[in-house]
Amino acid sequence: MVAELLNLTAIQTGNFTLHRVPLDVVGAVTAAVEPLRERAAERGIEVSVGGAAPGVVPSVLADRAALSMVFSNLFENAIKYGKEDGHLLVRIERAGMYASVSVTDDGIGMSPEDCGKVFDEFYRARNEHTASITGTGLGLSLVKRLVEMHEGTVSVESALGSGSTFTVRIPSSSS
Fold first, then answer.
1. What pLDDT digit, counting tens, does each position of 51-92 carry?
2. Residue 98: C-alpha distances to residues 38, 55, 134, 150, 172 (Å)
3. pTM for this prediction
4. Nearest Cα to Cα of residue 153 among 99, 75, 73
5. Domain harbouring 106, CATH code
């Protein structure tokens, strides 16, 4: 929580600096998901990473640490809100001049109202399914701000009881 709050404060005050380098999105996603596989396995969640053939997904000009925070946060949420013995699917693709990473879980999902607020600071969906799940409500706000600093977008599609898909699109380094 402290790290998330410090990062958000640095972004808000203009004291967060991106150190952009050409970055292989597939490698960045793999590096972020690997440390979380054990946590997923503890909940019986199968993690699959797939998508476009190697070399098809464009590289991006990005800050490695910032994108690691983005992907780690999305994967952690998918594990936290996914159902036991469920699935977490990560798809990496080319979307025009963008590299696209989608994170899909088959967990509790969200209402349309929650989807509209989920990127707000300190917002947490409150219902009988989330009451026992801890969190600060800062992670997705941080994701949104970091993605936007890379001139990208993040979106969510979800339905209660059907899981959620978060999609991050970052412009390719050649766009």
1. 887 778 989 999 999 999 999 999 999 999 899 999 999 999
2. 30, 14, 33, 11, 5
3. 0.86
4. 99
5. 3.30.565.10
Parallel, antiparallel, or unpaired: how do β-strands 60-63 and 87-95 relate?
Answer: unpaired
Judged against a pLDDT cut of 70, whether residue 9 lies above it is answered with no
Amino acid at 130: T
Output phi, psi for 58, to 5 deg: -70, 150
User: What total number of domains does the chain contain?
Assistant: 1
83's tokens: 């159902």
Q: Which domain holds residue 92?
A: 2-9+18-171
